Structure formats: structure tokens, C-alpha cells
Amino acid sequence: SPRVPPDPAVPTAALSPFAVTRRIGHPYQNRTPPKRKKPRTSFSRVQICELEKRFHRQKYLASAERATLAKALKMTDAQVKTWFQNRRTKWRRQTAEEREAERQQANRLMLHLQQEAFQKSLAQPLPQDPLCMHNSSLYALQNLQPWAEDNKVTSVSGV
């Protein structure tokens, strides 16, 4: 039987159920071989101590200052730069946590002072309202303090 050429309107993947579809990655992917991950650099206690002392005084270094410090500590410029970036991130997180703790402490203090003020206001007798003085129902209501335990009203008289 004569061979029929494939119809250009029908995609070939639809014709073959076993068609291998090639996964296309990022356009810049696969151009360079994957790099081996560099092992984590360990710094000596002396290096860390000097870096911390400098960071305490100065959060940012100019390139000349960074180069001088790197040379003094026998580190590369990139190592000092990265250490300072990471240390600033840690510092920001710590200061944010401290500010939040201070905010919560201030809120607790405010609540305590409000409760104290409320308790004091309950202990003080209410000023007499002139309108309530002449109306026995209002007078009884004004003196009724349901939150005060010692004011148990057994009967309302004069209604």
C-alpha cells in the first residue's frame, strides 16, 4: 500500500502515544556544567572575635577598610564582605526580636496599670448625681454595683 505523508495540521505527538517529549529547561541552563558546592568556610576564634569587635563599632565597611581588615585577618575580601552581610542580617533579626519583646512588656505593664486603676475606681464611692438624689429608682440603681462583692442587695425598697 502506498505510504501517506503525515498531515501537517495534526501534531505528531497526537499520532504516537509513545512519543518522547523532551523537557525544555531554562534557556541558560545546561550551558555550563554544574558547579560543585564550595564547602563551608570555618574561621578561627581570633578572626571571628576581630570581626565581631569591628562590627560592634561599624556595621558597614568601605572597600578600602574591608581590604585592610581582610589582609590583617588573612581572609579574602569576599569572605569579609559576606561575613558582614550575614552579620547585619543576624543583627537586624535580633533587634527586631528585642523590639517585639519590649513592645509586649510595655503592653503587659499598660494592662496591669489599667486593671489597677479600675480596681481603685471600684473602691472609691460614686459621686452622687443630683438627678438620682430625687428619684428613688435611679438612686437605688446608682448605688447598685454588681461587681462589688460586699454590696449584696437583698431587696429594693422605696420603689
TrEMBL record:
GO terms for cellular component: nucleus. Keywords: Developmental protein, DNA-binding, Homeobox, Nucleus. GO terms for molecular function: DNA-binding transcription factor activity, RNA polymerase II-specific; RNA polymerase II cis-regulatory region sequence-specific DNA binding. Pfam families: Homeodomain. It is found in: Nucleus. Residues 36-95 bind DNA. Its main location: nucleus. SMART domains: HOX (SM00389). Residues 34-94 form the Homeobox domain. It comes from the Eukaryota. GO terms for biological process: animal organ development. Residues 1-43 are annotated as: Disordered. Coiled coil: none annotated. InterPro entries: HD (IPR001356), HD_metazoa (IPR020479), Homeobox_CS (IPR017970), Homeodomain-like_sf (IPR009057), TLX1/2/3 (IPR042247). Seems to be involved in the development of cranial sensory innervation from peripheral ganglia. This is TLX3 protein. It comes from Hylia prasina (green hylia). The lineage of its organism: Eukaryota, Metazoa, Chordata, Craniata, Vertebrata. The gene is Tlx3_0.
